């Protein structure tokens, strides 16, 4: 039976059992990957294959049928692009704002197949490392010290400097390539689908602790971690509920409701102060939820969330308050029937969204929090939005910016 273990190309001048270094005698473009003068001009339309934020949510990477493009978010503008004749990239993963990117070719790419991960140094204009697998790569995540490659049934964790294989994790079928990392230098937490439907596996590598969380009854559709890896937010393929967990003990801290009808949740984002959660779905609405989890600062003091509107009613999503829950935080206006819990259907007592923004339906959008209570939204239709929301009153968000960054 053929496995998904990584292999090295036969023609690579330097290879290891872990990965392949692209070594070249001069500082010119790599023979493995280069950007020839392509017969592509700005007026040509490109198909958009993927969109993703960098780790700080201040840049947007777009994989296209002609290559890739990088955009600065605030203010929004194209930073640079790389076009080529052989085809595009289905995965473009940035490493913060550095010149290092991870690239995975699209199926139609004649030179860079979808089973190969290229580590590209744009400053040197060459490939500095690559990994080849026997099956299609579903996702790639980068930290300053790690490379994580996601296949459909397995995840590989490598050291960034020497490409040494450090960990292998088996998962349930994961065609979405779901995986998320913490990005603080002093913690390394990884969350991914577990071995069973609806289960999330959390690896605290620094503590050598593995935690399995039974997050949902259905398959996991979306997940994200806080930058320190202490909190996890998840949604299932049903798309009605989003749950927030403590990754250390697996306890449920809060549950919020996107809606009643089934939906595909495409993106979940937590604000840096863990006061807000944003989610987008194919229903065409971005929802903002007010979180009640407490924030752990660098001084290890617990700072509750005190923002509370006059119309908000206190409401808890569990029978007992967890130590990470702030009792001083208000719920949401649509939760005003919480006193009828156990009498009315469950969705009447759920915590509903605090603010909303309407978008076209059936288009994939990803969300992130910007500066000054703004939300950044990018769509697979080549659109970018920046919206603001009222921290006290919530309601409909105000559109501040709308840009068509790519003609699709």
From TrEMBL:
Q: Where are the transmembrane segments?
A: none
**Pfam families on file:** PROPPIN (PF21032)
Compositional bias of kind Polar residues: 1-19
Q: Where is this region: Disordered?
A: 1-36
**Topology with respect to the bilayer:** Peripheral membrane protein
Mind listing the UniProt keywords for this protein, alphabetically? Repeat, WD repeat
Q: What is this protein called?
A: Autophagy-related protein 18c
Organism equals Vicia faba (Broad bean)
């Amino acid at each position: 039976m053929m496995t998904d273990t990584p292999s090295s190309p036969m023609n690579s001048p330097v290879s290891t059992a872990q990965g392949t270094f692209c070594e070249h005698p001069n500082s010119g473009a790599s023979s493995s990957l280069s950007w020839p003068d392509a017969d592509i001009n700005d007026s040509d339309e490109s198909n958009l294959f993927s969109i993703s934020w960098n780790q700080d949510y201040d840049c947007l990477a777009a994989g296209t049928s002609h290559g890739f493009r990088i955009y600065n978010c605030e203010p929004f503008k194209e930073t640079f692009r790389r076009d080529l004749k052989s085809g595009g990239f289905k995965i473009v993963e940035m490493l913060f704002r550095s010149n290092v990117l991870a690239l995975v070719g699209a199926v139609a790419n004649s030179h860079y197949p979808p089973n190969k991960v290229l580590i590209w140094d744009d400053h040197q204009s060459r490939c500095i490392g690559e990994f080849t697998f026997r099956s299609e790569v579903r996702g790639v995540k980068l930290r300053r010290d790690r490379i994580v490659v996601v296949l459909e049934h397995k995840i590989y964790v490598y050291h960034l400097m020497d490409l040494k294989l450090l960990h292998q994790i088996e998962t349930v079928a994961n065609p979405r390539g779901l995986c998320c990392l913490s990005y603080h230098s002093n913690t390394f937490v990884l969350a991914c689908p577990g071995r069973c439907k609806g289960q999330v596996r959390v690896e605290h590598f620094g503590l050598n602790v593995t935690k399995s969380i039974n997050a949902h009854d259905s398959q996991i559709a979306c997940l994200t971690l806080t930058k320190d890896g202490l909190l996890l937010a998840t949604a299932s393929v049903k798309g009605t509920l989003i749950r927030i967990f403590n990754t250390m003990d697996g306890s449920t801290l809060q549950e919020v409701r996107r809606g009643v009808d089934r939906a595909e949740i495409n993106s979940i984002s937590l604000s840096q102060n863990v006061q807000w959660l944003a989610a987008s779905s194919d229903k065409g609405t971005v929802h903002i939820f007010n979180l009640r989890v407490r924030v752990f600062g660098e001084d290890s003091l617990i700072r509750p969330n005190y923002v509370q509107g006059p119309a908000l009613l206190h409401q808890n999503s569990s029978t007992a308050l967890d130590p990470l829950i702030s009792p001083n935080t208000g719920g949401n206006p649509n939760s005003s029937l919480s006193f009828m819990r156990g009498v009315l259907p469950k969705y009447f007592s759920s915590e509903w969204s605090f603010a909303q923004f309407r978008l076209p339906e059936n288009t994939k959008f990803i969300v992130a929090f910007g500066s000054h209570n703004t939300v950044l939204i990018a769509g697979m239709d080549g659109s970018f939005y920046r919206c603001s929301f009222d921290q006290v009153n919530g309601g409909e968000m105000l559109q501040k910016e709308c840009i068509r960054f790519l003609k699709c």
